[in-house]
Automatic annotation (TrEMBL):
MF-aspect GO terms: sequence-specific DNA binding; transposase activity
Name of the protein described by the UniProt record: Transposase
PANTHER family: REP-ASSOCIATED TYROSINE TRANSPOSASE
A Gene Ontology BP annotation from the UniProt entry: DNA transposition
Domain Transposase IS200-like, residue spans: 13-126
Organism: Alcanivorax sediminis
SUPFAM superfamilies, per database record: Transposase IS200-like
Transmembrane segments: none
Pfam families linked: Y1_Tnp
Amino acid sequence: MHGMNLRNGRVSEVGRIYMITSVTHNRLPHFATTQAARTLIGELIQAQASGLADTLAYVVMPDHFHWLMQLGSKESLSAVVQRIKSRSTRSLRAAGHSAGWQRGFHDHAVREEEDLVQLARYIVANPLRAGLAKSVRDYPHWDAIWLP
């Protein structure tokens, strides 16, 4: 039921920048392998290539991902995130990996006064806070348009 509560009041605005977080089912580390993480990253890249969203920053963690994106005009926010989750699940299962997501996702509509570079730094530093790497350079599953 918690996932349903997250959808209450959700707004989907074309051109709006959102910070998205989605968690795997039971927080299982489905994205702990490079192949699995790259599968999810491929779906983020495909969403951009399809004009669904412009990716500003992301990080794929073993049991969740964070995505700073600007929503395109083709689909709603919920439809875009659902597409990422369903396509990554199908791809991973086809490759013999277990996969699944918790229902729903968390979104934060970024306000104009918020510093996008700071949000991107927060996202890509997630592996440091989780103890998965000592430096962002040591963690391979992230990208941001502002950071080398």
